[in-house]
Amino acid sequence: MFSFKQFSIQQDRCAMKIGTDGVLLGAWTPIENNPFSILDIGAGTGVIALMLAQRSNAEQIDALEIDEEAYEQSVDNFENSPWSDRLFCFHAGLDEFVEEPEDEYDLIVSNPPFYTEDYKSENEQRDLARFTDAMPFEDLIEAAALLLSENGIFSAIIPFKEEELFLALAKEYELYPLKITRVKGTPNTEIKRSLLALSRNENAIITIDELIIETSRHQYTPEYIELTKDFYLKM
Fold first, then answer.
1. DSSP sequence for the chain
2. pLDDT in tens, 133-154
3. Mean per-residue pLDDT of the chain
């Protein structure tokens, strides 16, 4: 059980446990367009969808999860949350989901599996959650381009080393950066992640900044505390 300020998450059946990436994306994703409908692609525990339920007034929050155990767990987490009437999880792969799109979404979020190393572990469920071949970036971007409403925002967290490729692919589908935040663990480490928000409009002004998580072990920066304080119990 992982407890946040307004909801709790069971994660014993999920290959990918709650981590900084998902929490960052859930807290950082822009909601200035007041989304009515949200889609979380690759829900895992459901944490990102739950964070967006807390942060927004969206009436329809859908999540998509291919792994059966993770799907069942996210359904339970949704039902046990204060926003159970607004949250729904589909047990399907992205390719199935986009075959007959029912809706457009004002906000699409994804913390995609992105380990591109050539080895696989003994745990097939964890591999599926972690390896890019479970959801290639191009499939994700193509789906976002198909499902995003006219003024919608598509938001993802990816390895920084993949940022250039991701943005080049997005441009091919006429999705353009609106906001980019590059994440470092500490002031002296390399940039590890890129938080990207994209839209259908080519933006004259793109906000680009940097977020440092901690100055030393468990000494969090004011910026990280500000971003996550509505969620983490000890912030």
1. -EE-SS-EE--TT-SS---HHHHHHHHHS--TT--SEEEEES-TTSHHHHHHHHH---SEEEEEE-SHHHHHHHHHHHHTSTTTTTEEEEES-HHHHHHS----EEEEEE----B--S---S-HHHHHHHBGGGS-HHHHHHHHHHHEEEEEEEEEEEEGGGHHHHHHHHHHTT-EEEEEEEEESSTTSPEEEEEEEEESS--SS-EEEEEE-EEETTEE-HHHHHHHTTT-TT-
2. 556 888 999 999 999 999 999 9
3. 91
